C-alpha cells in the first residue's frame, strides 16, 4: 500500500473515531433535554448537531493545537503511533458504550495516543508540562460542574418560589432550549477539536503538514484564530453529528435518568448551563476537557439539591471508576494497536 493511501486510510479512521465520539460522547449533548421531554430524541439530535456545527465558525482551534503539539513530542509521532492511538480510542469507546458507561472519548483519544507514542519512543515522548492542565481539569471539571449545577438549581428554586408549578415548568421548557443549545455549542468548541488535532499530527508525521494548515481564508474566532484547514474542521463536525444521530441513546439513559431520577426542565436547564460554563472555561484555556465529566458532575449537583437520596450514588461511583480506568485502559490498547500496525501495515509498505 503506498504511503499516501495509508494517510487517507488513517484520516478515514480518525473520522470513524469522531463518529464513535458522536455515538458515545455527544449523546451527552442531548441527554438532559430528552430526559425532561422538552424535545423528542430526533429533534434534540438535530438541535445539538446544529450548534455543534456552528461552533466551527465561531471559535478558534486552540484545543486542536494542544492535542497535536503539546501532549506528545511531535518528533515521537509517526503514522503507526496515530494508528495505534485511534485503535485504542475506538476500542475503548466500544467497550464502554456496550456497558452504557459515559466515559470520556476525549481522554480515550489522548490516552490511546500517549500509549502508542510510549510504545514507539518510550516515556520521553510524553510532554509532562502539557498534561498538567489536562489532569487538573480531569479532577476539577466534575467538581465545577457539580457546584455550578447545585448553585443554579438552588437559584432557580428561589426565583420560582412563589410561581405556580406549571408556569415555572413552562418557562424552563423554553429556557432549556437555550441551555441545550449553549451546551452543544460548548461541546462543539472542545470535543470536535480532538480529532482535528490528531489529523494535523498525522499529516505532519506523513510529511504533508501544509495540508492541515489554514489558508488565506482563515479568520479570527471568538476565542482565537482558526489555524486548521476547513476541510478538516467541517469533516470532523460532520462525522460527530452523524454519530450522534446513529445511536448514542444508551448513554443518554445513564446521564439523564440513572444518576438522578425524575429530572425536570428546571433541573435540565441548570445542568446544561453548568456544563456549558465548565466547558467554556476549559476551551478558553485551550485545554481538552471531558464534556462527559462536565455534564455528569452537573447532573449530580442538580440532584443533590433534593437531598442525598435523590442521587443514585452507585451510578456516580461506577462512572468515576470508568473515568479512572480510561487512561490506563485506552493507553494499553493504543500501545497494542501500535504493535499491530507495525505487524500488519509496515510489510505492505516495504
From TrEMBL:
Q: Please tell me whether the keyword Cell division is annotated for this protein.
A: no
Q: Which UniProt keywords apply?
A: Membrane, Transmembrane, Transmembrane helix, Transport
User: Where does the UniProt annotation locate this protein?
Assistant: Membrane
GO CC terms in record: membrane
Pfam families on file: PHO4
TM spans (from-to): 45-67, 79-100, 106-123, 130-153, 228-249, 319-338
Major location category of this protein: membrane
What is an annotated GO biological process for this record, any one?
Answer: phosphate ion transmembrane transport
| Topology of this chain in the membrane | Multi-pass membrane protein
Name the Gene Ontology molecular function terms of this record: phosphate transmembrane transporter activity
Q: What is the designated name of this protein?
A: Inorganic phosphate transporter
- Originating organism: Terriglobus albidus
Amino acid at each position: 500500500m503506498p504511503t499516501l493511501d495509508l494517510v487517507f486510510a488513517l484520516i478515514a479512521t480518525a473520522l470513524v473515531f469522531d463518529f464513535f465520539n458522536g455515538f458515545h460522547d455527544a449523546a451527552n449533548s442531548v441527554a438532559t433535554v430528552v430526559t425532561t421531554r422538552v424535545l423528542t430524541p430526533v429533534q434534540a439530535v438535530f438541535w445539538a448537531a446544529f450548534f455543534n456545527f456552528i461552533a466551527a465558525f465561531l471559535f478558534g482551534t486552540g484545543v486542536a493545537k494542544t492535542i497535536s503539539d503539546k501532549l506528545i513530542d511531535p518528533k515521537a509521532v509517526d503514522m503507526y503511533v496515530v494508528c495505534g492511538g485511534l485503535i485504542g480510542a475506538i476500542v475503548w469507546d466500544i467497550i464502554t458504550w456496550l456497558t452504557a458507561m459515559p466515559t470520556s472519548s476525549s481522554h480515550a483519544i489522548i490516552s490511546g495516543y500517549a500509549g502508542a507514542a510510549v510504545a514507539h519512543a518510550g516515556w520521553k515522548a510524553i510532554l509532562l508540562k502539557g498534561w498538567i492542565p489536562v489532569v487538573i481539569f480531569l479532577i476539577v471539571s466534575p467538581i465545577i460542574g457539580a457546584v455550578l449545577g447545585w448553585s443554579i438549581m438552588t437559584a432557580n428554586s428561589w426565583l420560582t418560589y412563589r410561581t405556580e408549578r406549571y408556569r415555572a415548568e413552562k418557562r424552563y421548557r423554553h429556557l432549556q432550549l437555550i441551555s441545550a443549545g449553549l451546551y452543544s455549542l460548548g461541546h462543539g468548541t472542545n470535543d470536535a477539536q480532538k480529532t482535528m488535532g490528531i489529523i494535523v499530527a498525522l499529516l505532519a508525521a506523513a510529511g504533508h503538514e501544509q495540508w492541515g494548515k489554514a489558508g488565506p481564508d482563515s479568520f479570527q474566532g471568538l476565542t482565537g484564530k482558526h489555524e486548521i484547514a476547513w476541510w478538516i474542521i467541517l469533516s470532523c463536525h460532520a462525522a460527530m453529528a452523524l454519530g450522534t444521530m446513529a445511536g448514542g441513546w444508551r448513554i443518554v439513559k445513564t446521564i439523564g435518568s440513572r444518576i438522578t431520577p425524575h429530572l425536570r426542565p428546571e433541573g435540565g436547564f441548570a445542568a446544561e448551563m453548568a456544563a456549558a460554563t465548565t466547558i467554556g472555561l476549559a476551551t478558553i484555556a485551550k485545554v481538552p476537557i471531558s464534556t462527559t465529566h462536565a455534564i455528569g458532575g452537573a447532573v449530580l449537583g442538580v440532584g443533590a439539591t433534593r437531598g442525598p437520596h435523590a442521587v443514585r450514588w452507585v451510578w456516580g461511583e461506577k462512572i468515576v471508576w470508568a473515568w479512572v480506568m480510561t487512561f490506563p485502559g485506552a493507553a494499553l490498547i493504543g500501545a497494542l494497536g501500535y504493535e499491530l500496525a507495525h505487524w500488519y501495515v509496515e510489510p505492505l509498505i516495504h
